[in-house]
Amino acid sequence: MNILAVESSCDETAVAIVRDGRQVLTDCIASQVALHRIYGGVVPEIASRMHIEAIYGLADQALERTGLRREQIDAVAVTYAPGLIGAVLVGVNFAKGVALAMGKPLIPVHHIRGHIAANYIAYPELEPPFLCLVVSGGHTMIVEVRDYTSMHVLGTTLDDAAGESFDKVARVLGMPYPGGAALDRAADGGEDTKYALPRSKPGANPYDMSFSGLKTAALNQIHHALQLGETLDIPSLCASFSAAVSDTLVPRVVRAMEETGCRKIAVAGGVAANSRIRRDILSAAEQMGAQVYLPPLSLCGDNAAMIGAQAYYEFLAGNTADMRLNAYATKSIVGERL
Questions:
Q1: Which among 40, 55, 54, 52 is positioned nearest to 6, based on CA atoms?
Q2: What is the pLDDT of residues 37-87, one digit of tens each?
């Protein structure tokens, strides 16, 4: 089954063709990073306009690269939630038009489910059930993937996402957008215990997390040094911050493995590229005799291949939509059937 997949939830316009949920025939991406870097972050209106300019050409490019004819496309998939609403609407409207014109099924895909499905591309042997630590720019959660379309959220952040916190601290330090990647590079060689930064303690739900206090503590360290004219050890501050984020995430993943008995853990989302988190997850899993699935860096960020991968299983489960499909800025990964 050849699925034409569209992703436009933030600042990457992407169109991919994925076969049977596992084989990526092509994944065409138009990045807007250089443009948004001028502003230090994503400008939603600009992102939406750039999606409109790029999306038609990417779809043509995807067909040209694979040599497929339009009639060889079996379905059209699209990210319909969550994301910047104007950006998501561009993809949804484009996919609806293509599906209608070609007479093909339309498959709506939740963006976070797509991130989880990136692991199916990287690891063809991976099948549910497994646990997944989702750490993207706007989402942080631990998900029990019971089946390809049946998921249970064990815990989530109660305020800021880990990715948002990385980006905010990096921006205040004067690092270029995207800040999380720049901060990770800057942490290399730093002393991760030099700056005392807080870790959120488990609350009523031991899997829930909080990053607002950590972010504020790091920003206070920066502002305090500036006010006193002191020199910050930036590599050590970055290393200390990365360690604090990882120390918030990894123990909760370990607890989830212990309580569920699951010994398969996947990581998904843009922050899955963070070297400290990857290292700590691997170490913890080794101690527990668990199998870790870490997607390559190319599949950590937003892409359409992951949307096409998840779409295959949504289609098999009967989760298709008609021309009434709408876009949503926020929506649970569990969600209701459309």
A1: 55
A2: 888 889 999 999 999 999 999 999 999 999 999 999 999 999 999 999 999
pLDDT band at 336 (very low <50, low <70, confident <90, very high): low
Helices 234-260, 162-172: inter-axial angle, 10-degree rounding:
180
Which runs of consecutive H residues, i.e. helices, occur in 190-332? 212-228, 234-260, 275-288, 305-316
45 φ, ψ (degrees, to nearest 5) = -65, -40
DSSP letters, 64-87, are: HHHT--GGG--EEEEEEESS-HHH
Rounded to an integer, what is the distance from CA 177 to the centroid of its chain? Answer: 16
Q: pLDDT value at position 262?
A: 96
What's this model's pTM, rounded to 2 decimal places?
Answer: 0.93
Tokens of 252: 């909760």
What φ, ψ does residue 82 adopt, rounded to 5°? -90, 180
| CA angle (146 as vertex; 110, 275 as ends), nearest 5 | 70
